[in-house]
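Attaching the record inline, Q. Sequence:
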Amino acid sequence: MRSRSIVRSIGAILTMLAMALASLVVDPMTSGAQETNPFQRGPAPTATLLNADSGPFSTSSVSVSSFVSGFGGGTIYYPNDTSQGTFGAIAFAPGYTASSASYTWMRRVASHGFVVFTINTDSRFDFPSSRATQLQNALNYLVNSSTSAVRSRIDPNRLAVGGHSMGGGGALIAADRNSSLQAAVPLQPWNTSTNFSGVDVPSMIIGAENDTIASVASHSRPFYNSIPAASEKALLVVNGASHGLGTTSNDTQALSSIAWYKRYVDNDTRYDQFLCPGPSGINVEQYLQTCPA
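Structure, as predicted:
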C-alpha cells in the first residue's frame, strides 16, 4: 500500500511538472515572431485583408480642438486594442483648401495597427513648407502633450508622415527636415521645388495618371527621381485616376500605403511581398521601387 501511495505521489508531481512546462511553450507562429520583431502588430497579411474596408483592429476616434497650438486640430483614429503594446503614429496633412473631413478613409490605415492623426492646417491656404511644420507639431502633440488622448498608445520612436496634394508636398519636406521619421507616404504631392535629394526617410510617392493639378510628369516623378538611389523609395502611379484620388479609399492606393507603413514603421518584413516587385495589373500605370532592404 505504501509503495502504491509513493508511486501515486510521484505521478502527481510529474503531471504538475508537465503542465508547468506546457504553459511555457511559445506558439512559434505568433509570440516567437513578435519576440524577433517587437513592433509586429496583427496577423500575417494577405491581399484580401489589405483590400478590405477595415483591418484586424477595431478603431475609435477623437477630435482635437482647433485652438491647439501649432496646427489647426483634426481627428485622431486609433486601435482600441492595447494588449499588443504601443503603436506607431502617422500625422497626415490635407490638400489645399481641404480639411481632415476629406480623409476619413485614413481610419482604414489605423485599423491595421497605427494611430493616425488627420490634421487641419492653421489656414486652408497654407503652402507645403508650413504644412511640413504643422505635421511635425502634430506628431509632437501626439507624443508629448498632456492633452493628447492617445499618448500612452504611441511608441514615440516610430513616427511617420503622410499627406495629399500640398499636404503630400509637406510630407516630403517634413521627411527632408527630419531623418528620424520612419516613413513618408505623400499622395499626389504638390510642391514648387522638385529637389528632395536630402531625403533618406523611406518614402512612397503615389501619383495619379490623369492628375492635372500635380501631374506625375511635373511633380511625383521628379520628386521620386531626386531622392537618392540609396534611400528606400517607391513611385506608384494609379491608372486612370485624377488628383482627388487621395481623398478616396482606393484599394491600390490604400494597400500600398498600408504595406509601406507596416514595413517601415513596424519593421514588418511580412509586407515585403506587396512592395517588391510590387503592385501590378490594370489599376497600375507605373511602379518603380528600390525594394526593401
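The beta strands are 59-64, 74-79, 87-93, 114-119, 154-164, 183-187, 203-208, 233-238, 284-289. Residues 3 and 259 are 64 Å apart (CA to CA).

More tomorrow.
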